[in-house]
Amino acid sequence: MEQRELVVVGAGPGGYVAALKAAQLGISCTLVERAEVGGTCLNRGCVPTKSVLHSAEIFAQAKEAALFGVRIPEASVDFSAVRDRAQEVVGRIRDGVESLLAANGIELVRGEARIAPGPLVKVTCQDGDERVFSAHDVVIATGSEPALPPIQGLDGPRVMTSDGMLSDVPCVGSLVVIGGGVIGVEFASAYADFGAAVTVLEALPRLLPTLDRELGQSLALALKKRGCTVCTNALVREVRNETDGAVVVYESKGEVREVRADAILVATGRRCDVASLCADGLELACEQGRIVVDGQLRTSVPHVYAIGDIAAGGLQLAHVASAQGIAAVSAIANVPCEIDLACVPSCVYSNPEISSVGMSEAEAKESGIEVQVGKYLMTGNGKTVIAGMDRGFIKVVARADDGVVVGAQLLCGRATDLVGELALAIARGMTADEAASVIRAHPTFEEGVGEALEAVFGCAVHSLPKARKAVSR
Ligand code: NAD
């Protein structure tokens, strides 16, 4: 039995950030990982997906290059090079994280961990050794994996999850995406830009159903414009695997329909595996398959914390896991954590990009909050015109009585980079006036944020004026 101050299980963006924070706070930390450092986000999620999307964006731009006065006679996609590029990016970032862990004196144990009462952490190491750590505190950060719904035929050779799409980056002429959530629309967007015939089947009435209605609807229009077929209210019933392709059978508006494709991506959510983490009768209170935690990420078992996808309640996002890792370790070290865990930006790296933070207008109304919405159409934004982007908007939702910003939704160039300043405004309780009161450089996409903030009170300079009363002098 080896004594440790802190054992963190899982080295994804939750676990490795928790370990680094522990080192900063002077807590000696052992980090256990059964696969690669960086977890899903770095190895099979956010990072390689964004690399593939970046390749798709470059190809889409190359096809449009003549519009900008650049002649590219024949642009084509080398899918194995797209995959190699994604793997190279992943490798570089992973090396960086491993160096950071080593430089901070964090002990990295490679193996499969199970947690037992004590708390004890029992590790079956990759070299076959069994090690048992008795820890003062344990942080569980084991993430999630793609969930396959109970649909017949999903075991066929042409059916993939995001894991398979990223390890292969297959060259396909046609792709059916089951699920119009974040993963589904990101792959649909990339493959539409690569020139594949893409069909998205979403069971609910719109794409990205958890976000503001206008975001999913506008994205559907943008995808359709690039040749995608988007079917909402489409519930997939079965996949038939045939020699020359797979056929997806779905139900829509009371009719049974079929669509054939070279490959099928299943993107219908992710699941957590709590059961195989618990040994010797350890029982962690769970809710819908995820571990119940309090505001300081404490589970029902003393000295055991859970963060990231496996912790119930939070959004399953890498940056949430990292923030929770910092909050959990701060609680362990008994120091205050200044991060506002309630204000979480969500980003979708589709073309066009989408981001959202705080409340939508509909959510504010449901909560009985009267709001004013400032909306700026990015067609009036210089950088948007320069980049040749046609659709886009930024919406800011502010409380009607005092002007405090409570939400924002963006669909425009670099939306994923712009959402940060609106998240800051929300987390710090700023009014739209206060958030608008800095000079934004010209020409930038960011100017649109300023305009949307000003539009809350009808004062956006680059929007057509609403009917004004004559001002007498
Ligand atoms: P999701 O829950 O976001 O979306 C799944 C979609 O599939 C839902 O809209 C659901 O209605 C639909 N669906 C379910 N069963 C269906 C069926 N039988 N037929 C048709 N549609 C069906 O899940 P996801 O897209 O797999 O993403 C998983 C998690 O990973 C999410 O929490 C997401 O936020 C996170 N993620 C985030 C990013 C990012 O931040 N950019 C990227 C990838 C994943």
UniProtKB/TrEMBL annotation:
PANTHER family listed in its UniProt record: DIHYDROLIPOYL DEHYDROGENASE, DISULFIDE OXIDOREDUCTASE
Organism listed in the record: Candidatus Aveggerthella stercoripullorum
Family per record: Belongs to the class-I pyridine nucleotide-disulfide oxidoreductase family.
Name by which UniProt lists this protein: Dihydrolipoyl dehydrogenase
Entry EC no(s): 1.8.1.4
Gene3D superfamilies: 3.30.390.30, FAD/NAD(P)-binding domain
UniProt miscellaneous comment: The active site is a redox-active disulfide bond.
Localization terms from the record: Cytoplasm
UniProt cross-references to Pfam families, sorted A to Z: Pyr_redox_2, Pyr_redox_dim
Cofactor comment text: Binds 1 FAD per subunit.
Residue ranges annotated for the Pyridine nucleotide-disulphide oxidoreductase dimerisation domain, each copy included: 344-452
Keyword annotations: Cytoplasm, Disulfide bond, FAD, Flavoprotein, NAD, Nucleotide-binding, Oxidoreductase, Redox-active center
InterPro entries named in the record: Class-I_Pyr_Nuc-Dis_Oxidored (IPR050151), FAD/NAD-bd_sf (IPR036188), FAD/NAD-binding_dom (IPR023753), FAD/NAD-linked_Rdtase_dimer_sf (IPR016156), Lipoamide_DH (IPR006258), Pyr_nuc-diS_OxRdtase (IPR001100), Pyr_nucl-diS_OxRdtase_dimer (IPR004099), Pyr_OxRdtase_I_AS (IPR012999)
UniProt keyword Cell inner membrane present: no
Amino acids binding NAD(+): 179-186, 202, 269
Covalent S-S links between cysteines: 41-46
Every FAD/NAD(P)-binding domain range: 5-325
GO terms of biological process kind: 2-oxoglutarate metabolic process
Lineage of the species this protein comes from: Bacteria, Bacillati, Actinomycetota, Coriobacteriia, Eggerthellales
Listed GO CC annotations: cytoplasm
